[in-house]
User: What shape does this take?
Amino acid sequence: MSIPVVKVENLVKRYKELIALDHLNLEVREGEIFGLLGPNGSGKTTAINCILSLLHYDKGSIEIFGSPMTPDSYDIKRQIGVVMQNVAVCDELTVYENIDSFCGLYVPVRSQRKPLVEEAMEFTGLTEFRNFRPKKLSGGLLRRLNIACGIAHKPRLIIMDEPTVAVDPQSRNHILTGIEKLQHDGATIIYTSHYMEEVEQICTRIAIIDGGKNVALGTADELKKMIRKSETIRIDMPQPAQDDLAAIRSLPHVYECNWQNHELTALCSGGSHNLIRVLSYLQEKELPFGHVTTQLPTLNDVFLEITGKELRDQ
Assistant: This one.
């Protein structure tokens, strides 16, 4: 079995009385896009800063590429790229100069750096903006520049913290496609986002942390199987009698049924033909209804049931 790219064991970080990380364990495999989810204050940013050895921790161990990660592990740090949520570029430099400057931190020889900078601009779709300064770029292009600065030196491990915040759909699609290409080219990526559809689209495995602990880990499908909800049925209809709501609630696999704003919502756990049973009851009782939808559980459902919070509202 190959050595994990990142291995975190029993990591503890305290801020006086506050325990930010409580014996956190994570293992990121080579070549995967590893999603890291958690509500505000869950410990995500603290964990990333500890992994990067930017923050001292109280207990535990961190290995990257099979070696202990310390503040002076410069050989390891040269193989890491970081794209943080806050755009960190120099307003006085052009697009090319920004990428060249960041790449120069890892590749000091200019002749070796030039093709890397050109490739990073082409990869992020910034070639035609090479002489623009950041203030002339749209929000989406600025995010792309932030990514180009973090990946130009071709790191083996890339940490991306909310790289698509507040960007237009075109730039978001460009960024997500680029992340998948980075993985295809051999990079290992740790990815955080509040956009569940992004995480489900690109992440091979996902960890949910809350209270500084890893509370769930698996693929999107594996996580969905951990929760009670397996199907949500929504039906537009006039308000039914309480007896009818109780009857629907007593149907097999229905564990909750409510009516609000002209919509009946039935939550089901397991089973099959749940929709057929609910509609059969409505027809049998001659209750009028309109538009019908059924939805399988989403990652947001998983997050809500496990943490008690809506990630998209964080």
